[in-house]
Amino acid sequence: MKSKTYRQLRVLVSFFVVMIVAVAVFRESYLLLTVGVITGISFMMLVRSKIGIKTDERELTVQEKAARLTYSIFAPTIGLTALLLLIPTKSGFSVFRNGEWLFVETTGMLLAYISLFLIIIYALSYHFFNRKFGGKTDEK
Fold first, then answer.
1. CB of 53 within 8 A of CB of 5?
2. How many CB atoms neighbour CB 111 within 10 A?
3. What gap in Å lies between CA 105 and CA 46, rounded to an integer?
4. Cβ contacts of 13 within 8 Å, gap of 6 or more
5. What percent of the chain has pLDDT over 90?
6. Which among 36, 75, 95, 108 is least buried, having the fewest CB atoms inside 10 angstroms?
7. Is 71 exposed, middle or buried, given 0-12, 13-18 or 19+ CB atoms closer than 10 A?
8. pLDDT at res. 33
């Protein structure tokens, strides 16, 4: 299978999944929605593994730079959002004092934990790949 055929198949499967999702939302059938999406994803994974799409060095470099930029934007954004959501609950604003907006503090804590988890994953993966690709851990 050539790359052009794969792209056409991907568009066809995407259209099929969108139609299944539309029908599922219209009928309020979340089981159909879940099964349709999982079937589409698994079908595309099987097709992709069969054809063996190759990537060149340029594409790998673009993917690395996109992932680095995404991380450098996403981590601080989530951290600052968590901070902004946690500040009003501690300062005693009148709206937050009575506990009516308790979900704001909960959302802030959740985002804080997510940002810390993201930073830990980045640090561990950096350490792993640094050792794997010959990075020196003890420099003199």
1. no
2. 20
3. 43
4. 40, 43, 44
5. 19
6. 95
7. middle
8. 85
In the block, tokens 């609950």 appear at: 89
Q: Encoding tokens for residue 32?
A: 């159909």
The structure's pTM equals 0.55
| Overall average pLDDT of the 68-77 stretch | 92
Crossing angle for the helix pair 102-132 and 57-91, nearest 10 degrees? 150
Count Cβ atoms below 10 Å from residue 40 Cβ, excluding itself.
Answer: 19
Q: E strand or H helix at 102, and its extent?
A: helix 102-132
The string of DSSP codes covering 9-78 is HHHHHHHHHHHHHHHHHHHT-HHHHHHHHHHHHHHHHHHHHHHT----HHHHHHHHHHHHHHHHHHHHHH
Q: What is the pLDDT of residues 82-138, one digit of tens each?
A: 988 888 766 666 555 666 667 777 888 899 999 999 999 999 988 888 888 886 655
- Give the span between the Cα atoms of 71 and 65, in whole angstroms: 10
